[in-house]
Inverse folding.
């Protein structure tokens, strides 16, 4: 049975008040009259007046029409934050109109200007599948920038007191993921400036990837499938070949699954058929100036 608006509890009443305020603010910001909004949303002007005054117990379907007419997502009207500034709203509107590539460019600009390195932190995290060159490039990059090098797998094994294979054998993937997140948090707590070589599957946990993206300058190190396989085998790691007659097909599938997550990185370095020196030079050109500040020059710390 529907509840009459007059019997609503304070919490729903507060929600309706915030909802009405947001609708009114967005309408005015777009220079729309209530009559214009009514015409574009097919919701009566009288009903909109009730809504904007915090008395309109509007249905989701009708509210969806209002959101569409205001050119915003329905979730924008329903979220809990009460004190969003006009600037925040304008930023959201601008970002919504950008392409995926423009999103990445905007993220990099925001990172360079407002991320932790602007407050003295210089962290770089390398993500990507095994065989891309993360460890080799990470060590050289850390040396070039005069920063500590952290191999996250080593931190994980230190916390567990056993090898990765033993962790998976005893605790499975879920246990490994918990240790991986703990290892990352421990690394971030201990090191305000460092180069982190992450495991290839760290992007499988969206919340952990979000932590990386907000605390580090993240670089996706990639190559083509055949080179991934070749490099891993040359390193003496035959795991991709064990019990996997369709190893290359599995590798391609894994890369396709993770690519959307890897592509969230602030920068991408393709090491395909490139020398280590060339790949390292390319990485250095992608780094924000604040991170390059400690780069060595002619063997001395700059």
């Amino acid at each position: 049975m529907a509840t009459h608006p007059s019997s609503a509890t304070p919490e729903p009443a507060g929600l309706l008040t915030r909802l009405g305020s947001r609708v009114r603010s967005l309408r005015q910001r777009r220079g729309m009259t209530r009559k214009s909004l009514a015409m574009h949303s097919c919701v009566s002007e009288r009903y909109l007046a009730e809504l904007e005054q915090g008395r309109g117990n509007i249905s989701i379907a009708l509210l969806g029409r209002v959101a569409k007419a205001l050119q915003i997502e329905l979730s924008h009207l329903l979220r809990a934050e009460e004190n969003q500034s006009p600037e925040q709203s304008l930023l959201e509107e601008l970002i919504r109109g950008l392409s995926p590539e423009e999103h990445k460019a905007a993220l990099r600009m925001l990172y360079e200007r407002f991320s932790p390195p602007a407050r003295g932190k210089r962290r770089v995290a390398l993500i990507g599948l095994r065989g891309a060159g993360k460890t080799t490039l990470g060590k050289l990059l850390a040396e070039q920038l005069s920063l500590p090098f952290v191999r996250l797998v080593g931190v994980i094994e230190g916390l567990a007191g056993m090898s990765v294979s033993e962790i998976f054998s005893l605790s499975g993937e879920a246990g490994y993921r918990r240790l991986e997140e703990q290892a990352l948090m421990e690394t971030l707590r201990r090191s305000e400036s460092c180069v982190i070589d992450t495991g290839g599957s760290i992007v499988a946990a969206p919340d952990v990837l979000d932590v990386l993206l907000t605390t580090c300058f993240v670089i996706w190190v990639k190559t083509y499938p055949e080179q991934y396989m070749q490099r891993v085998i040359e390193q003496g790691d035959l795991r991709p070949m064990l019990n996997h007659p369709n190893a290359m097909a599995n590798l391609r599938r894994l890369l396709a699954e993770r690519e959307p997550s890897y592509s969230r990185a602030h920068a991408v370095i393709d090491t395909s058929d490139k020398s280590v020196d060339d790949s390292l030079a390319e990485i250095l050109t992608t780094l924000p100036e604040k991170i390059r500040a400690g780069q060595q020059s002619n063997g001395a710390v700059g």
